[in-house]
Structure formats: structure tokens, C-alpha cells
Amino acid sequence: MAELKAGTRLQSAVCDSEVMVISAPAGDADLACGGSSMIAMDADKSGGAPDAAQSDGTQLGKRYVNEAGDLELLCTKPGAGSLSLAAETLVLKEAKPLPSSD
Amino acid sequence: MNITMLLEMASSGFADRVAVQEGDRALTYGQLFAAAGSAARCLRESGAEHLALLDSSSPAVAVALFASAWAGVPYVPLNYRLTGDELDSLLERVTPTMLVTDAERAADLAGREGITAISSADFLEQSASGEPLAEPWAMDGDDIAILLFTSGTTGAPKAAVLRHRHLVSYIFSSVEFGGAADSDAALVSVPPYHVAGVASLLSSVYSARRVVQLPAFSAAEWLRLAREQQVTNAFVVPTMLSRIVEELENNGASDPGLPALAALSYGGGKMPLAVIEKAMRFFPGTGFTNAYGLTETSSTITLLDPDDHRSASASDDAAVKRRLVSVGRPLPGVELQVRNDEGATLGANESGEIYVRGEQVSGEYLGLGTRVEGDGWFPTRDGGSIDEEGYLFIEGRVDDVIVRGGENMSPGEIEDVLLEHPSVADVAVVGVPSVEWGEAVAAMVVARGEHPEVADLQALVKQRLRSSRVPGRIEFINELPYNETGKLLRRRVRELLADSAGVAE
């Protein structure tokens, strides 16, 4: 467990998923993917597989949020596991498209 | 955070889609990412502390932008229209640097101390092969991504500092990843050294849109390329839109022949009402977006979107109709305020200086520190007002305000009135030194056909505004001085007026 900071990148220990923190609540947070705690980008993967109950997968470029709305992650690499904070599975954030301005 | 991550994502999701093309040169997203890595390695090995780019648009621009971000050195796009002396003084400020430039300059500058010059063509060719820089890019958002020398319409150029976190915040708040369709294409005709040129690349990359570059703008070529490439999105400065509409009129075209063009956005200067109204008639199937922003704010901070354009244009309510000349409302995450000279926040429709706050706002100049205040607000030096519904109206640079006998007046207000005269094609109003008033109002007019009578023009201003606004001097000129992105050079107008006064005396 570690404190999440905007801009931090993390990877899943059990699938290909990678995320970047957009915003996060203060204090230590147990961020997991596929049911296992996410690890630093230079750490070694566990070699395990995602928990069957946490295998809805992540999609490239999508944002994931918690219900409280104080955690937002960007998926920078897709994988098989689902993202969760403590016991709460994160959900896809609906994008509100803006007109292209440049 | 690092803008290279935006490209990495596009490359992993859309490797085979064309990222950028100019003429017969094109790079897919996969190739662009690989080229950026290879160029980053060369850049690191050269020992350069900056990567300067001094050339018109080509795929080399995109490679240079991301190679410098990957290597962790600031990218410095320079204005190729500057004179040799001006360029030398800017180059001195960024040495040791790698310089990607045209073949002639690359040869001229070979051997200059602190400069590793390479032609755009060679740079592209070299980066097409070779190992990427082994080290990953730094993720410290505080690293400098870009130094952009401001156009210096009021003085010596300053280098605006844009850090990775500013640019990434801007993209995250305004662009959906991979939002572009396979068939989408953006036509980029603004030069690489303009913040809109940088922003259009970043936005297109993150939406995985194909970028079609037009290195030298002409209305005819813009139309030809947009048709040939079935362009769906384009950004133009107001002068370009005005010339495109003129070209269509001159050709007697009833239809622009651009059925694919879904979105046309404009910004970078004041859009005359007559031009946007005419453009909307010529492009009925196209959604128009007005984007307002500054170099110091990582490009766009407010948008007048296509629905705003349509509802303003169709409305009988004067307050709604007026919004067609507004710059719209702030992007998500951007806050605006209008303040008076004493710093007090003003209410709806009151004119003052525009302040902006948000994560994309830099407000910093190299060696001069930041102009952002402790609570995050950045004074834009643009004057304006915000209406009841939050639409922002720009009223010119605060520094251009004319103070005549203690009364503040905006040149734009007087110019708008003079432009209503059928014989006035273009006009610039500036303050000139006056013993009696401190500053006096003077106008430089480009006549359409016969010169209008000075007395008639003065009477028009007196009737529509008030006598204090009447230009005491009105001179005629064939063409007003604009920079290449259509920004009126008011300092130059004042110089011209000073010169002609000298001659008259």
C-alpha cells in the first residue's frame, strides 16, 4: 500500500494492465488489478493470473473512477484484470466529448 | 507525466494508422513512436540541451516534438520568418542545441558553436531506423516540454515555458483518447512555432487522428488539399478563413465541395462578425468552433461550440445574437474572472482584465518567473467581459487600451464602428502621445475603393459612441501590418503614425 499521486504510473501484478493516476484521495490506498495489489512500473510481475471475479478487463485510454469520485485512473495499457480500490471495483467514466478545437 | 505517453498510447492502440503526412511523406503512429525514440537517442548522444526546430511543417516536426520530450530536453519551435539577426539572438539563448531546419540553413549553420544543425529531411531519414533511447522518458510533470517565443507584438520576444503537466492536463481535459474515426483527418495550416500548431499535433495524436500538414497556406491550396484528403477537421486563424471564403466567392462557388468537413475551428485573433456569418453560409454542413487561448495557457481555454454558433446566428434576441462574436465558455477545469484595475472581481457584462486559473495554465517565462499569482490566477493582459450565461467577450489587449484624459477606451470598440462604413476595408485604432490628453485617438484606415472623407468617419464615431472616442487623426494606408498568423502589430501602427506625423511637420 502506498499513497497515490497524480501522474504516478502503476502496473498490474497479474495482467498487462498499466494505469496512470489522474486524481486520488489523500492517504494510503490499496489499488488492485485482477484482485492483486498494483505494483511499481519497474517491479516484477507475480506470474499469477487475475482473480476470476476481477477479470472484466481494462481498456486503453479509458478512465476509471470510484463511486466517491475522488479516484480517477487512466488506462495506459489494456489487460485482463479489473481495477479496484480496497474492495470496490472501479467503473468506466463516461466521456463527455468536446468539439475539437485545434 | 510526459507527452510521450500520449504518443505511446496512440501507437499501441493504432500502430498502423497514418499519424502525420505532408506531400508524399507520411508516418504511421507506430513509425512516429519508433522515430521519436531513435531521434531521442541521437539527441541525447549529441549532448544538446534543447531541440530547436526552424522549418515549415513536415513530419519532422512531430518527430522533433516527441523526441525532445522522450530525451528530456525542451523543444523550441522557432519562427522561420524572423530575420537572421533576430534568429541568431534566439539561438544564442538555447545553445547547446540540436537544430532541425531546412537544407540551406543546415549547411549555413554547420560548424556554428553550440549548434548541431541537421536538415528536416536528414533528421527524418536518420530517425526512420536506429535503436530507441534505452532509458524511458522521465515522468516528472514539472520538466519543461516546450519553450515558445511569443510573437513580441509589444516588445522583445519572451520564451513562454510549457511544462509536461500543463500540456497533458490540457489534452486530458479536452480530448478523448482514440476518439477519431479511421477516416478522420485534420488539416493543419498554422505554423509549427504557433501554440495552435503544437496543440493541434498533441490533440490529434491523443485522438489518433491523421494529420495532414499544409506548410505554406494559400486559400486555393487549402481547399484543394482539404478536398483531396477528405479532411474532416481543420483549424484556421481568422485571416485564413477570410481568404478561404474570398476564394470561394471569387470562384463563384455556391458550395465549397467539402462534404467531409465536419468541424472547422478558428482562433488566434479576432474574428470579424461579417466573416464568420459568411463562412457559416458557405459551409452549412460544417460545425464551427471558436477557440480562445494564449501561448501561456497551453492553447485553448474557452470554446464557442457549433451549437452556440447556430443558436446565436438564428436568435432574434440581441444578447444571444451577440454571442457569435464571443469566444464562448471555459473548458472543464478552467475558471475565469474579470477584474478591474484595483483587482476587484467584476460582475456580468462589466469590462476589465481577464484572469484564468487551471492546471493547463503556465503563465511562466524563461528567466522571468511566473506571472501566476499565489492563488493560481493568471492575468492574461486581455481585456474582456463575461455575460450572464458565462460567455466571454474579448476586448483587445489591456496594454492597447487608450487612456485619453483619464478616460479608458478600447480600440476594438472604435474599430468596429469604423468598419461599418462601406468605404473602410480595414482599420487600426491606437493611442498616440498628446500633450493635452496624455494620449489621443488616432486611426489608420485601409480604404475600399475611394478614400472616405475623414470628417464623415469622425462623424460616424461621434454619432455611434461619443466625442471623446473620435480619432483626431485619420491616416490612410494600403495595408495594415499583421504578423503571419493574422495578429495586428499595433506597435508598428504607432510607429507608422509617428513617421507620417514627422513627414507632415
Please, could you describe this protein's structure?
The complex is a heterodimer of chains A (102) and B (505). Helix content of chain A is 0%, strand content 35%. Chain A is mainly β and 102 residues long. Chain A has one domain. Among the domains of chain B are: 68 residues, Luciferase, domain 3, CATH 2.30.38; 104 residues, ANL, C-terminal domain (GMP Synthetase, Chain A, domain 3), CATH 3.30.300. Helix content of chain B is 34%, strand content 26%. In chain B, the strands form 6 sheets. Chain B has a 9-stranded mixed β-sheet with strand order 2-1-10-9-11-12-13-14-15, sandwiched between helices. A 4-stranded parallel β-sheet of chain B has the order 4-3-5-6, with helices on both faces. The longest helix of chain B has 18 residues. Chain B is globular. The termini of chain B are far apart.
Can you give me a brief rundown of this structure?
The complex is a heterodimer of chains A (102) and B (505). Helices cover 0% and strands 35% of the residues of chain A.
